[in-house]
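Feature request disguised as a bug: please show the residue count (667) next to STAS domain-containing protein in the output. Example input:
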Amino acid sequence: MFHGDNGCRLVSMKTQIHSQHSAPPHDGSYDNEALSCSTIDITAPNSGEPHGGLRGSNEFILSDSGKKVTGDDQTGQLNMWLQRKARSAFSEKMIKKRLPILRWLPQYNSTDAIGDLVAGITVGLTVIPQALAYAGIAGLPAAYGLYGSFLGCIVYIVFGSCKDVPMGPTAIASLLTFQTAGGNVGKAILLCFLSGVVELLMGLLGLGFLVDFVSGPVSSGFTSAVSLIIVTSQVKDVLGISAKGTTFIEIWRNIFNDIHNVQVWDTFLGLTCIAVLLIMRIISGLKVGPADDELKSKNHRIINKLMWLIGTSRNAILVVVCGAIGYSFQASAVAPFKLIGDIPPGLPSLKAPPFSLTANETMSGTEESFMEMVSSLGSGLIVVPLIALMENIAICKAFSNGKPVDATQELIAIGLANIANSFVQGFPGTGSLSRSAVNNASGVRTPLGNIYTMALVVLSLLFFTPYFSYIPKASLAAVIIAAVVFMVEVKVVKPMWRTKKSDLIPGLGTFIACLALPLEMGILFGVGLNVVFILYHAARPKISVERLTSPGGAEYLIITPDRCLIFPSVDYVRNLVTKQSIRQSLPVVIDCSHVYGADFTAATVIDSITQDFARRDQPLFFYNLKPSVCAIFEGLSPADFVVYYREEHLDDLLKQRAYKPKEVISA
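Example output, currently without the count:
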């Protein structure tokens, strides 16, 4: 065997075992550690030096200016690091990465403009009724939904990296806003600002990977539970009753307590609107003419496009019709429906979000300082940004066509958009999956489609807000129910059952927890449950045990773990190795081909195992151990720690250990 600086000992047919580390040369050079554990013989001819004399120096590194920076010069190294970061931050590639508009705007053409115009107007017809409805979910006046639907669109055009994302209120963000701010306008606006700040900081710090800790089953369970909670929260408006609450169980309990006050006309209108919306949704997917698009006539294409447009604009059409009905009853002073009420005309004033509340602005009747407001928002300051990122990344992945998604850039974009929205009294928002699907189907070409959506929202605020006050609450509730009921992800249960049944546990656990508890606690429970499964998986690696015969005829036991050796699993591995080795009384080989990492705990256990085998005078060898893992194990200088990399070397090792198989004495 030969010996490298990392202490890894390897079998060689040409050399003898030695265990002494060679002293480092006085010139400060060192043997290349990557070659120390290699079985490739690259010794140069007529050279006695290891690795053919290949050496590296730890004396100094050469800076870009040509100056030598020694290992002890910490200031020089820091300056070099800062210079590299500065050059990277202001390079053309990084600037275009952080300002995506610079990538697509120079190539913008008339075809892009037409596609963005059609898509932007179509999405605008969808976002206006949804914004009015989502404000109700957030427990805020309807106008605040529109306030959060236009300025963020402009910001996303500049910083957004996905053409299909229409920035604005969403059902999930609205529900989280209600559970966090409790329907207080000032707190909802401050939540929008602080959520944007948190998202921006997460983007600048590159923390987009945090969303990876929310697995698919947990995300499905969370989304499904939120959908049911939103549907439940709108049942009261369909029935025309009052039923407050933040959790699924609490809302239904209050609904049953007030069920005797059901309004017949509101119920009739709400159920009728739901049925109409579902029928129009089906119409949008219908096609006339031959199945092959090339065989369709011009009339077929026109009819199909009209049916799709009518189905896609179903929310706007329904709200306009119901608003006209409400206006006709209001004019006759006999309004059987509950209306959303007056909406202030015009654009909101541009001002900073409230950093304190007066006594008239709080439910308790006492003033609240900034710190008290932040304290009352609690964990929502973290949960709202993370869920917003989850929604946005889901959209980007759905329409990326296999291209990589830059989670960091999306965090920066939605963070800046929410900060901007807070200055026009908006509440937290992000990309909407339903509007993104409409955007994509409408043929959007770039994020500039958001400008036409913004224009429609601004026009509605300037000219149509007096008419919005006649819209019945039941019709807006129907819009929400018909949209979010399809967010319940029942379809994932069957494939999840077929692939890995245990994944249903965190998914179902998250679903139940989110229904019974506040949403932030529910998703934390789901993530925690998922982490428990991951840790259990790490703590119980699959280990195969085989009894084999070496080329020289010696029997031995080979034990193969299938993953890294880290602290949760090492005791389990040790017990199994000890049990099998005592039972078989054969030389033991631990095949480390799949062990790509280890930690200090694993090193201590390996040290203990080697001592146990030495006391029993039972050979123990490690096969195909990675150099990095070998260095970790050698850090404790374990006794009789032998690693080899070629199967034919096993017989030589057994001879060196003077191992003789025990004879079986028969009676």
